[in-house]
Specification:
Transpos_IS110; alpha/beta; about 60% helix; IS110 family transposase; Nucleotidyltransferase, domain 5; 3 domains; two-stranded antiparallel sheet; about 400 residues
Length: about 400
């Protein structure tokens, strides 16, 4: 067997080759791309002899990118190792905190040689699942970017134009019509001059209902007396607000387009029907859950393994007389967010889910712990549906938690 540690950077890879006894066979600095992969294959051929590709084990700190896909396509075993695990593993060599690319490559090679049975190999997801992952993560990232930009916009308005926050509260400041009005009149003086006709025209273009009443409310709020800043400072603030507003409008457009891409790719996947049968899951949430779980049928040996990866199952900490059960905080945040949303929506979609949640609250569990336990239960149900290739059934899913019938 040949063990390879691959410390990757943007434009190169530091690799170290070891044999099964930990003896260093070679080390090299390889360029990114086709040339680097070719040189890596040459090193494997030179030191591996007639080894089967499956006997070549690679440890690397990522599970994405064309380089990783090329390693998998070559038939190598590829392990994506968390950088935190590598940092802790390196402490056995020295406690000084020293770091080098060659040292990281050596640690990665040692890890796949010594602790391979404790590491998670890169999942063999299908091309469709990987495509869903790309568009779903991009869609969610754009939403997070919009939220960050909105928070900056709101903070800026509070400093010089708080009346705008009250005026556009009913429209939601992230909506395109509110942003267009803000761009049209980004200062208190300009906003006070907006006519009801101008406001109504913008609302009509975006098909708002009760336009006349909304326009009157907005105009009255914008014409309220308020504290003002010097003209030069107000002009600088208005330029910043206009930039943020235009950016949010662009993000709104791209989020809408990416949402259609997410739905299209997700519905092409053969597991989409099973995901959509689950309570609390629609196209976007289903795509996010599928993207993070993947579709490799051998990845999760049991429902417990899937729950542990999801971060919904608790962690036990026992030492001496101390014994506590805590929530997992080191987890996949994208997956945790999607499962939390599913659990919340399932409260109204599934009577069994509602009973299970109420049961946790009756045990004096707070809102978030109870919702997390419901999410943990739903992950187990999803695992069973995927394993048996059957859609969700309300009676089967909650048969162990059904209310006892009166005698």
């Amino acid at each position: 067997m040949l063990l390879i540690g691959d410390d990757w950077a943007e434009d190169h890879h530091d690799v170290e080759l070891q044999d099964e006894d930990g003896r260093k066979l070679a080390a090299a600095n390889l360029p990114e791309g086709v040339a680097g992969i070719a040189k890596l294959h040459e090193l494997v051929a030179r030191h591996g002899g007639d080894l089967d590709p499956w006997d070549v084990v690679v440890g690397i700190e990522t599970d994405r990118g064309s380089w990783v896909q090329a390693l998998i396509a070559s038939g190598y075993q590829v392990y994506a190792i968390n950088p935190r695990q590598v940092a802790r593993f390196k402490e056995r060599y020295a406690s000084s905190g020293a770091k080098s690319d060659k040292g990281d490559a050596h640690a990665l090679a040692d890890m796949v040689r010594i602790d391979r049975d404790r590491l998670r190999p890169v999942a063999g997801d299908s091309d469709t699942a990987q495509a869903v992952k790309v568009v779903a993560q991009t869609h969610q990232t754009l939403i997070w970017e919009r939220t960050r930009t909105f928070q900056r916009l709101r903070s800026t308005l509070r400093e010089y134009f708080p009346a705008a926050l009250a005026a556009y509260a009913d429209l939601a400041l992230t909506s395109t019509d509110a942003l267009e009005l803000l761009i049209k009149a980004p200062t208190p003086a300009a906003a006070a001059k907006l006519t009801r006709t101008q406001i109504t025209a913008v609302l009509a273009r975006h098909r708002r209902r009760n336009r006349e009443a909304k326009a009157a409310t907005i105009q009255a709020a914008l014409r309220e007396r308020q504290l003002t800043l010097p003209e030069q400072i107000t002009a600088a603030y208005s330029a910043a607000v206009t930039a943020h507003a235009r950016l949010i409008i662009a993000l709104n457009e791209q989020i809408s387009e990416m949402e259609e891409q997410v739905k299209a790719h997700f519905l092409m996947h053969p597991d989409a029907e099973i995901y959509l049968s689950m309570p609390g899951i629609a196209e976007i949430t289903g795509a996010r859950v599928l993207a993070e779980f993947g579709d490799d049928p051998t990845r999760y040996a049991s429902a417990k393994a899937r729950k542990n990866y999801a971060g919904t199952s608790p962690v036990t900490r026992a030492s001496g007389k101390s014994h506590t059960v805590q929530a997992r905080y080191v987890r996949n945040n994208r997956l945790a967010d999607a499962l939390q949303r599913q659990a919340f929506c399932a409260l109204n979609a599934s009577p069994g889910a509602r009973r299970y949640y109420d049961k946790q609250r009756a045990r004096e569990a707070d809102y978030n712990p109870a919702l997390r336990q419901l999410g943990n239960r739903l992950v187990g149900i999803l695992h069973g549906c995927l394993k048996t290739r059957t859609t969700y059934d309300e009676a089967t899913a909650w048969s162990h938690h059904a209310c006892p019938q009166p005698a």
